Amino acid sequence: MAKIAPIILELQQLSFAYKGAERLTVDAVSLQLKQGTCTAILGPNGTGKSTLISLMTGLLAPAAGRIEYPHYQQLSLKQAIAKKVALVPQDFAFYEELTVYDNLAFFVAISEKNRRLHAQYIESAIAACNLQAVTNKRASTLSGGYKRRLNIAIALSKQPDIIFLDEPTVGIDPLSRDAIISLLQDLKKQGKTLVYTSHLLYEVAQLCDDVVFIKDGKVVANQAINNAQLTLNFTTTNRLSQMQLALFTEQLTVVNEAHYQLTISDTKLLGSLFSALSQLSDEIKSVNFSDNQIEQLYRALFSEQAC
Length: 307
Ligand SMILES: Nc1ncnc2c1ncn2[C@@H]1O[C@H](COP(=O)(O)OP(=O)(O)OP(=O)(O)O)[C@@H](O)[C@H]1O
Hints:
Distance between the termini: 46 Å
Helix content: 25-40%
Keywords: ATP-binding, Nucleotide-binding
Bound molecules: adenosine-5'-triphosphate
Radius of gyration: 23 Å
Oligomer: single chain
CATH class of the largest domain: Alpha Beta
Largest sheet: 6 strands, mixed
Order of helices and strands: EEEHEHEHHHEHEHEEEHEEHEH
Protein name: ABC transporter ATP-binding protein
Mean pLDDT: 90
CATH architecture of the largest domain: 3-Layer(aba) Sandwich
Number of domains: 2
Number of strands: 13
CATH topology of the largest domain: Rossmann fold
């Protein structure tokens, strides 16, 4: 039987408003995060995601509600956050004039009193983020991808159990992004709990187990994501006949006249699917695969909010 992951963070009716704001920025948010999982917090710009992260990481104090890290009951909330929680903020949070190593040394000295552990923590953050080639370079001279990795390495140098990442791949090229996603996947394998915001939904699909959708400060949906599920969309020159439809072993949804959709949760079915598509090669106009469960949900929830 699959083991149920223990709850590592619980929010109960958490609310917050900035001074002068007309409405609550975070409005009665209740959530439970599971240990060793990645939860994405998604929503349009300005909907309160970063503010919620600031509350969960102790940077802001809630106006109402509770935040609990039940795993660390022997610690106060402040101590649990100081010892076990790290934040990778959206903006770079390091000293541009210091080298990568000196930045890490500076932040480790703040988070860990035992000096004998410093070198070990710095080295492990460098290794985890693959920063060996730039250890002695000034942060100001790094590429965008390395700067993002340094931002993450500083958070890891604290040896946290829970890591909040606020758009950690903004503004970097696809290969640098892949490197960061793979680093985050490794952290998950090590049992770290990740909380993640991004506007790049394919990243979320690659990494996250649960998705929480926030709209105007409120949770509007909260659900597990089936990363194994793929949706195939294909369009045809004409509507398919019953005989042509029968080529598919799985049920097709007819989206409209010449647009079909099929959801696959077992990749073993791909063989028969490709075989059916190849038999229709004269009719097929376009084929597109996506793990767009998240994207579909996102569009359904927020389509009227685009600016
Ligand atoms: N320090 C602040 N003082 C006053 N208002 C703020 C402050 N920070 C954010 N806000 C406002 O609070 C609301 C929520 O902002 P927040 O940054 O949490 O949104 P977000 O969902 O993270 O947005 P994005 O996706 O653009 O990062 C916005 O209307 C924003 O203008």
